[in-house]
Amino acid sequence: MKKIIIFLGLSAALFANDAYVGTPAKILDKVGGKEIGQLFVGAKVKVLKDSGNFTEVEYNGFVPGEGNTAYARLGVLESDISVKNDKNFKKNGVQKDDYDNEWIKVSVKGAVEKKALKPNLDEVYKPGEELFKERCGACHALHGYDEFNVNVWPSVIKTMIGNAGLNETETQTLTRFLQSKAPIE
User: Fold this and answer.
1) Which of 66, 72, 104, 119 holds its CA 20 to 30 A away from the CA of 2?
2) What are the residues whose beta carbons fall under 8 Å from the beta carbon of 24, sequence distance 6 or more?
């Protein structure tokens, strides 16, 4: 019985390393340090250490060419983080997408308020689904999730922000939810 409990404890520790941004969150260079950027709703981070009200994290993603915004997946415009200075990104190599565009693999470590993180994507996507049904469905028949591809949904939502009365957090939440359901092409 003791071996089973130890095994379960180790398994939980191994698989509890990822968290997801549930609300837009400032990322600091260290706990109590200066702001180096902002993580967007849905961004996946690796939890390195809990530090009181903050969690030390590492983000990994892709930057197309040079820039200060990194994306979740190669060739897919799912904004995860924007840093104040691209020097905050550690460059970890280059990878080409299906169209032969070069994307820089990047990482950044920092501290995020613990309350901004969620343990799973369901907790991030559920509010997006509710916004989609309530706000979008209040004016027109709902589009199929696959009606637009993952890179088009942000533009569609941007045209509807005023009509739907979305604030910045709601816009990110809705966008990330629809991108999670949309085809890549």
Assistant:
1) 119
2) 38, 39, 40, 41, 116, 168, 169, 172
**Gyration radius of the chain's alpha carbons:** 18
DSSP state of 115: G
| Other CB atoms within 10 A of residue 115 CB | 12
Helix H or strand E encompassing 179: helix 168-181
Residue that has been written with the tokens 């005023």 in this structure: 162
Q: CA–CA separation, 135 vs 142, rounded Å?
A: 10
CA 44/CA 42 separation, integer angstroms: 6
Residue 141 DSSP class = P
Tell me the whole-structure pTM to 2 decimals.
Answer: 0.85
Strands (E) across 52-101 are located at 54-64, 69-73, 76-83, 90-96
Q: Nearest to residue 97, comparing CAs of 62, 66, 69? A: 62
Gap between the Cα atoms of 97 and 100, Å rounded: 5
